[in-house]
Amino acid sequence: MAYSNLICNYKTRLMPIIGYPMDHSNAAQVYNKLFEIYNINKIMFPIEIKPENLGDFVAAAKTLHIDAYTLTMPLKSEIIPYLDEVDPCSRVFKSVNIVKTVDGKTVGAGMDGKGCIGALINAGAKLEGCTAVLLGAGSISGAIIYELIQHKVGKVMLLNRTLAHAQEVAKIMEDNWGLHVDAYESTPENLDACCSQADVFIQCSPLGMYGFHKDHEYLGFLEKMPRSCIVLDCPVNPEYTTLLLKAKECGLTIVPGMYMMLSQMTEIYDFCFGLRPGDAEKEEARKVLVAYLDSLKK
């Protein structure tokens, strides 16, 4: 890909995405396309940083005048002690995926929740008063639940293979914000019962993600959902997961994780650059990402 925005002078800035490992990373394709569209003199590329080397990276970023960078697992929690400021939700759930420098201070934020909400709203979800069901109690589930509750959902149910993890997220919500979340073990019976009430269903686990080598053992709960339910699956690759394909067969409205990532980009670009990419620009970036993912299959 050629980047017409790059002048390659002393003003050109690197904006890395860091994590470990990084062979699954594909976000740089989207960032770089939007940099080109908006003539931002930056370039993003993935860098593998092990947790024990994160302090070295933070020091190097200051030396190299890197004023913004993004993070993926397992560094989204590890970065927090190195930052000057972190928004309350990201600190509580230990999930930061964007860092910028403001007046010499490093400021971290998590955009997973906002990205999820944006994708749901774009798909037509009416969140106020609705029943939201989430599968998977990893780091992003808490941030998503936090944003759902800010949008006045009526009820939140969280299911996870290990019940204690779901209960932990529910307790954090209760202890920090006085917000109630129903927690369940993700048995077929519980999935069926919860999903029969769902207006919105969000799959937050890595199940079905390319490279994870594990998929859902049971998808019958999709058949129990009201036909008006909107189903979002967080993994970006593949674009259409097994869960989404099954949901589509059931006549449900589906939202691929790619659209959550693009909505998240809107929040990150606003956070870093004070601009919000429009639908046409995000569609251009999506096409670039799809073409890139397709090239990996050849």
UniProtKB/TrEMBL annotation:
Its EC number is 1.1.1.25. The keyword Methyltransferase does not apply. Keywords: Amino-acid biosynthesis, Aromatic amino acid biosynthesis. It is an enzyme of class 1 (oxidoreductase). GO terms for molecular function: shikimate 3-dehydrogenase (NADP+) activity. Pathway: Metabolic intermediate biosynthesis; chorismate biosynthesis; chorismate from D-erythrose 4-phosphate and phosphoenolpyruvate: step 4/7. Residues 17-99 form the Shikimate dehydrogenase substrate binding N-terminal domain. It catalyses: shikimate + NADP(+) = 3-dehydroshikimate + NADPH + H(+). This is shikimate dehydrogenase (NADP(+)).
